[in-house]
Amino acid sequence: MSVAIRVIPCLDVAGGRVVKGVHFAGLRDVGDPVELAAAYDAQGADELTFLDISASPEGRATTRDMVRACAQTVSIPLTVGGGVRSVQDVDDLLRCGADKVGVNTAAIGRPELIGEIAARFGSQVLVLSLDARREAAQPSGFGVTTHGGTRPAGLDALAWVRQAADLGVGEVLLNSMDADGTTDGFDLEMIEAVRAVVDVPLIASGGAGCAEDFAKAAGAGADAVLGASVFHYGTITVADAKRALAEAGFTVR
Question: Could you list the active site residues?
Answer without folding.
Answer: 12, 131
